[in-house]
Design brief:
CATH superfamily of chain B: MetI-like
CATH topology of one domain in chain C: Rossmann fold
Radius of gyration of chain B: 22 Å
Helix content of chain C: 25-40%
Strand order of the largest sheet of chain C: 6-7-8-3-9-10
Structural class of chain C: alpha/beta
Oligomer: heterotrimer
CATH class of one domain in chain C: Alpha Beta
Number of strands of chain C: 10
CATH architecture of chain B: Orthogonal Bundle
Distance between the termini of chain C: 48 Å
Number of helices of chain C: 10
Strand content of chain B: under 5%
Structural class of chain B: mainly alpha
Largest sheet of chain C: 6 strands, mixed
Strand content of chain C: 15-25%
Largest interface: A-C, 63 and 55 residues
Number of domains of chain B: 1
CATH topology of chain B: MetI-like fold
Chains: A alpha/beta (343), B mainly alpha (287), C alpha/beta (290)
Shape of chain B: elongated
């Protein structure tokens, strides 16, 4: 079902919507003469194709939010991009939004690239009615008269099944779910090519979560946009992502179509993520993963997962496994599979 | 704390300027102990000598060396400000922490007292105190009175911090670890409000010194004790500006202005450092 | 004296806010009754969405809030009659909390072991030698899979969320409570560590301590709990054996909740998310507009 929704083979003629190549982003802190370098994202390559929802899963500290900020061009000290390139279909040649000239960034923002954040309150100014928020964010990118914009806005809200009365409301007058729906509407009103969504439903109740996810997916399918969706919740990924990347401690450890990941997880960490979650109706005892996520200021040598890995071999503590393809479209970084001529 | 000061020094030009100004004023006031003349005596040097190598800041019409007089005056004025700030901080902390943590009727009672103190007009009251107490009005008594009136705004500020601390989970953990209210306030909450206390202390010093100078210039304090306001009072009495003895007024005003600007800059930058919202602005949010 | 550890008897809590003229009354908890038996320690899950009143219920059981009407009796003591500091200490020894955010459960400016030693000293000083308190703390930490060596001289930011939550459980255990109230204890813990924390609750129950496990996560509630209460808008809509209620929910709200759980499976994934966004409007979620 997933595989059919998107063209499986990226054609050479059409560049991907987003491609990240060997991105390294470190946090460099210098407090009281002690230098600390936290390698939050350490050599990640991935591509987001046109018209797909690419999901990034991982725990806190795995670097998924850092990666997202890099893509969005929100680089501020102590965060630093040490190496790698980020190219968009609509903005390439600069190596990332953070290196593009301001005029280009302004051209691209909202029109081509927009965001859905976790806390809708951060986007929606509490002192302004939603109509003003829409005008502030989107109107400069749309052009035309205010009446045209208003008409466009109404059509867009109607498409999302939102009542236009929300435009006259202040953010605090709306429930959390309604607010998040409004931010989805805000992010999609300019029909952007790429939408970045950071934990868009984490703060919501389960009943509302499902609806907001359905809304994101529905509007994405209709507009043919690409979405880079970051959440730690595997359930959310199972529902909306077309392809899935699993991150652990600053590395991408596995990548495949969502169905493939759930049917045939290869990396021991992915296996654990999928098998450990309790399910209603399943009484089998499960156990958590031992150990703690590594300290990224001083990560373990070799594969960063090896201290917690049930399959750890000698080689795992010596060198880091590369991302290799085991089947078409399925990449994994683990010595248990296909590394350097083995297996 | 040391780390915070270092960060401030590195990142904020305002903090650097403020620190240099305050350091200069402090140095000048520290020299008071080396004064060759007793500070209260008059006609120890030739009067009305303009600034020269022998008398750096000149001499007054009352035969005092402006440099040494200023040094002693600065020391006394700073001491006054520090005493007011210290006492009023203690009152503000007790009221603010207790009110914020306890809530309910304790909060309502304390805050109604607090709001009463906020709206009392201070200057006429201080003049009234002066007329009632007359000669018994020492600088310490004045400092005590001003401390009793100078805590109310900051108690409200501390209360709001305490209220947010109360809502945090570690307060509950402390409570269920068997700590008493006093222990929670002193050991758990006090360290969190100390930055607020420091920054408001500097603002409070600016306020109390300003008020003291005003009172002294008007002659409503013990003018025989050398203070910045006292110096300006005597200069006015001798019509220094008319007589052309400008240095008698210029140097004290320059010194007190430096002190004000210095303390103000320190308070402002410390405030910016403490306030998470302004810190957010400087460090920057995601977008 | 009865055999009830906790008797929540027709408890309601009404908050009123606003000024003198326009007072608004909000019923956070509405006529809730349930019991926990002393002889049979259990894990009781309290399920509800945000704003359902589950946190208020917790605060009342912890005696941080008094009910507007109804009675709360813990181990024979009516919580409304507690006046003195000594009585309060007695109660706090019997009922201990575990909080949602492990990173905020301990003062960031203080060392962790401070809370362990305090709990040990304040609640059990009479029964123990000072020398053995270190051993007792080490024991409690071992029960949660840590040791005093790992924790001592550490500040909260030096430990992971999972470790901090373990320390919080160890601290609660040190008081030798009869009941632990855990308000969303794993919602901020990483997925890979979550299950080991949840599993700890089973260990704690087998030590003879009942646990009230407040959560919005039906899957872990199904996995760990013996009995379940589903709360909506302050009142209990369904209660009973956890497995039975979650497998075959009777109340429509419970069915709705269960169906909204996003399973990390493909069995019900993708296909059932409506691509046409019908039904987006009709939620049970209250709109806050007047």
């Amino acid at each position: 079902m997933h595989a059919q929704a998107v063209p499986d083979v990226p054609s050479e003629a059409v560049p991907p919507m987003l491609s990240v190549r060997d991105l390294r982003t470190y946090y460099r802190a210098n407090r009281l003469g002690i230098k600390r370098e936290v390698k939050a994202v350490d050599g990640i390559s991935l591509t987001v194709r046109r018209g797909e929802i690419y999901g990034l899963a991982g725990e806190s500290g795995s670097g998924k939010s850092t990666l997202l900020n890099c893509v969005a061009g929100a680089i501020r000290p102590p965060m630093e991009i040490v190496g790698g390139d980020i190219d968009f279909a609509f903005l390439s040649g600069y190596g990332g939004l953070h290196r593009a000239p301001p005029a280009e960034v302004a051209r691209v923002r909202w029109r081509h690239l927009s965001y859905i954040m976790q806390g809708s309150m951060n986007v929606l100014n509490p002192l302004r009615r939603l109509r003003s928020v829409f005008v502030d964010f989107a109107y400069p990118h749309v052009g035309g008269t205010r009446q045209q914009f208003e008409r466009q806005l109404h059509a867009h809200l109607a498409r999302l099944n939102l009542d236009r009365s929300v435009l006259s409301a202040y953010p605090h007058e709306l429930s959390g779910g309604m607010r998040q729906r409004a931010t989805v509407a805000l992010a999609t009103v300019c029909r952007p090519d790429l939408i970045i969504a950071d934990e868009p439903t984490t703060a919501l109740d389960v009943l509302v979560q499902k609806e907001v996810l359905g809304m994101i997916r529905g509007i994405q399918r209709e507009m043919g946009s690409s979405v880079l969706l970051v959440t730690h919740d595997m359930g959310v990924h199972a529902h909306v992502s077309d392809r899935l990347g699993i991150m652990y401690a600053g590395h991408l450890v596995e990548e495949a179509g969502t169905a493939e990941i759930f049917r045939n997880p290869l990396h021991p960490y992915t296996k654990h993520l999928i098998s450990s979650l309790p399910r209603i109706g399943d009484d089998a005892p499960r156990c958590g993963l031992g150990g703690a996520p590594p300290n990224l200021a001083d990560p373990p040598l070799g594969c960063r997962f090896h201290p917690r890995c049930p399959l750890a071999m000698k080689v795992c503590s010596g060198e880091a496994p590369a991302m290799l393809e085991t089947a078409p479209g399925h990449r994994v970084a683990c010595f248990a599979y296909n590394q350097s001529g083995g297996a | 704390m040391a780390g915070a000061i270092r960060d401030l020094f590195r990142d904020h030009a305002e903090f650097r300027i403020g620190a240099v100004l305050v350091a200069f004023v402090l140095l000048l006031s520290a020299l008071a102990s080396f004064s060759p003349y007793p500070p209260e005596s008059v006609y120890v040097v030739p009067p009305d000598v303009p600034p020269s190598l022998a008398y750096w800041f000149g001499t007054t019409s009352r035969g005092q060396d402006v440099f040494w007089e200023l040094s002693v005056a600065l020391r006394n004025t700073l001491l006054f400000g520090a005493v007011v700030a210290m006492i009023s901080r203690v009152i503000a902390l007790v009221i603010g922490l207790l009110s914020g943590y306890k809530g309910g009727w304790v909060d309502r009672a304390l805050m109604s007292v607090n709001d009463t103190f906020i709206v009392i007009p201070l200057l006429p009251l201080l003049v009234l105190f002066y007329f009632v107490m007359r000669d018994r009005m020492s600088w310490l008594a004045l400092a005590l009175i001003m401390a009793c009136f100078g805590w109310a705004y900051d108690a409200r500020l501390i209360r709001s911090v305490a209220m947010s601390l109360k809502a945090r989970e570690f307060t509950q953990t402390s409570l269920f670890s068997g700590m008493s209210t006093r222990e929670i306030l002193v050991q758990e909450h006090l360290p969190h409000v100390m930055p607020v206390v420091f920054s408001t202390a500097m603002n409070n010093m600016v306020w109390s010194i300003g008020l003291e100078v005003t009172l002294a210039v008007l002659g409503f304090t013990d003018v025989n004790r050398p203070t910045i306001g006292g110096m300006i009072y005597w200069a006015n009495q001798h019509a220094a500006m008319v007589a052309g003895v400008w240095w008698w007024i210029a140097f004290p005003i320059a010194a007190v202005t430096m002190m004000f600007i210095g303390l103000f800059l320190l308070a402002v930058t410390a405030n910016a450092y403490i306030d998470p919202r302004s810190r957010f602005r400087t460090i920057g949010g995601a977008f | 004296m009865s055999d009830l550890l906790l008797d929540v008897c027709h408890v309601s809590k009404i908050f009123s806010r606003g000024g003198l003229l326009s007072r608004q009354r909000i019923t956070a908890v509405d006529d809730v009754s349930f019991q926990i038996d002393k002889r049979r320690p259990e894990i009781l899950a309290v399920i509800g969405e945000s704003g359902s009143g589950k946190t208020t219920l917790c605060r009342m059981i912890l005696n941080l809030e008094l009910p507007t009407t109804g009675r709360l009796v813990f181990d024979g003591v009516d919580l409304a009659t507690i006046r003195t500091a000594a009585d309060r200490m007695m109660l706090r020894q019997g009922v201990q909390p575990i909080f949602q955010n492990p990173f905020d459960s301990f003062n960031p400016m203080k060392r962790l072991e401070r809370y362990l030693f305090l709990t040990q000293r304040r609640f059990l000083a009479a029964t123990q030698q000072p020398a053995s308190s270190k051993a007792a703390i080490d024991d409690a930490l071992h029960q949660v899979g840590l040791s005093l060596k790992e924790v001592s001289h550490r500040y909260p930011h030096e430990l992971s969320g999972g470790q901090l939550q373990r320390v919080a459980i160890a601290r609660a255990l040190l008081a030798r409570p009869k009941l632990i109230v855990a308000d969303e204890p794993v919602s901020m813990v990483d997925a890979s560590l979550r299950l080991s924390i949840v599993n700890l609750f089973r260990t704690v129950r087998d030590l003879g301590i009942s646990i009230i496990y407040v959560t919005h996560d039906l899957a872990t509630a199904y996995y760990i709990s013996d009995r379940i209460l589903v709360i909506r808008n302050g009142s209990i809509v369904e209660s009973g054996d956890a497995k039975a209620v979650l497998k075959y929910p009777q109340h429509p709200y419970c069915r709705q909740l269960r169906d909204a759980v996003l399973l990390p499976d493909l069995a019900n994934a993708a296909a059932d998310v409506p691509i046409s966004m019908t039904g987006v409007k009709g939620t049970g979620e209250p709109d806050r507009r007047p």
